[in-house]
Automatic annotation (TrEMBL):
Coiled coil: none annotated. It comes from the Eukaryota. Residues 40-369 form the PORR domain. This is PORR domain-containing protein.
């Protein structure tokens, strides 16, 4: 087995013999031998924590919208509180986040007693119209994303049911298979009936413009700006305070010098355990996270596509092994793979255009909180005025009482 020039130079500079570096030979022979300790990154964890509250609101909204007529008795919704991940009663949660729903009384059955029902508020309906507009404006982006997901897959075919399950991660609309896919028969062919576990989305046409990864597009842009040909490469950087063993750093340096393998290239000829295949797998994960809305995807969700993208059973080790590219968060009890370069100080800097939907939803929540605060302010003012009037009235009573007592003495 040959060593890289850098490693050979390192061996010579220390006057040590190659057999004393058996661990290097082991790492070059077996990628699975690389062990990198997981380290907590509080800033990236906080990015997930910051989205927790509004995502809970979004889950409750989705639950109501999926009901017939988009209405549901409040006590029915309360029974689903645990599944929705709420720690407080549903009425308390809705009071904390006003403006999403209206409450009204109705009967569950014709002769039953009236109970409280929940339905979308007018402001929520306006948001849903705005959401539809944003999807329409970004339809070309949605088509390219879907094509890319198919183009990276082994047979250019992906389970349609799996795509529906991950639509939130990639920003696809609810009517992905019903409306979007049929509009583009030149790209997509839907096989089978969705919902039965045996439906598939097949790529019809290969578009070379879509077959360029974020890494390749970035290299092309740098070449255009500098006039110097830039080789596609990953950004690899650990935050301050992070440390990996010297032997692993050496392996990473050699691995980074390998030619970039595009996630859209045919790699059937590559050995699953080779460093070249590792390069390709990292490229696929990098591209998948880049296509996602928040540049992060729960690892169990990525695991659903092991067959389509030829992931090994131990694929999740890639994220800790390449901790300068990815971060694995354990927030909320779920392992989530995050793309480091997409964040700065825990804030998402590489924003997907479809995140405008989130911005509009946050505006809706903020408007509800503002209205609630204004209502509380008015209530406090009314209470204060009532107390002042009572105080004046009491003073008048005391004054008259004193006058009566003085008259009685005289």
């Amino acid at each position: 087995m040959q060593f890289s020039n850098r490693l050979v130079h390192s061996l010579r500079s220390t006057n040590r013999k190659p057999h004393e570096y058996g661990f290097f030979m082991q790492f070059k022979a077996s990628i699975s031998s690389l062990k990198v300790a997981w380290r907590k990154d509080p800033k990236l964890d906080q990015a997930i924590e910051n989205d927790k509250k509004w995502k809970q609101c979004a889950r409750v909204v989705k639950e109501v919208l999926n009901e017939p007529g988009q209405v549901i008795p409040l006590h029915y919704l309360e029974k689903r509180r645990e599944r929705l991940g709420l720690q407080v009663k549903i009425k308390t949660f809705l009071d904390w986040n006003p403006g999403l729903f209206d409450f009204y009384m109705d009967r569950v059955r014709p002769k039953s007693e009236p109970v409280s029902f929940v339905r979308p508020s007018e402001r929520l309906r306006q948001f849903l119209e705005e959401e539809s507009r944003i999807f329409v404006n970004n339809e070309s982006l949605l088509v390219s994303k879907l094509c890319k997901l198919l183009m990276m897959s082994k047979d250019k075919v992906v389970s349609a049911d799996k795509l529906v399950q991950v639509k939130r991660e990639f920003g696809f609309p609810n009517d992905l298979l019903v409306n979007l896919v049929p509009k583009y028969p030149e790209y997509f062919n839907l096989i089978g009936e969705p919902g039965e576990g045996k439906s598939f989305l097949q790529l019809v046409k290969w578009n070379p413009e879509f077959a360029k990864s974020v890494i390749e597009l970035r290299a092309e842009e740098e070449s255009r700006l500098t006039g110097i040909r830039t080789r596609p490469a990953f950004n690899w950087k650990l935050p301050p305070g992070f440390f990996i063993r010297k032997e692993v750093r050496e392996w990473i340096r050699d691995w980074m010098e390998l030619p970039y393998v595009s996630p859209y290239d045919d790699v059937l000829h590559l050995d699953q355990s080779s460093r070249e295949m590792e390069k390709r797998n990292v490229g696929v994960f990098h591209e998948l996270l880049s296509l996602s809305l928040y540049k992060r995807v729960p690892i169990p969700i990525l695991g659903k596509f092991s067959d389509e993208y030829r992931f090994s059973n131990a694929f999740s080790n890639v994220f800790t092994r390449h901790s300068g590219i990815f971060y694995t968060s354990l927030k909320c009890g779920i392992k989530t793979a995050m793309l480091r370069e997409a964040y700065k100080d825990g804030e998402l800097i590489d924003r997907d255009p479809l995140l405008e939907i989130k911005d509009k939803f946050l505006e809706l929540l903020a408007e509800g909180h503002k209205q609630k605060d204004e209502l509380l302010r008015l209530q406090r003012e009314m209470v204060q005025k009532d107390m002042e009037m009572m105080a004046v009235s009491n003073n008048d009573l005391d004054y008259h009482k004193c006058e009566e007592e003085e008259d009685a003495v005289i």
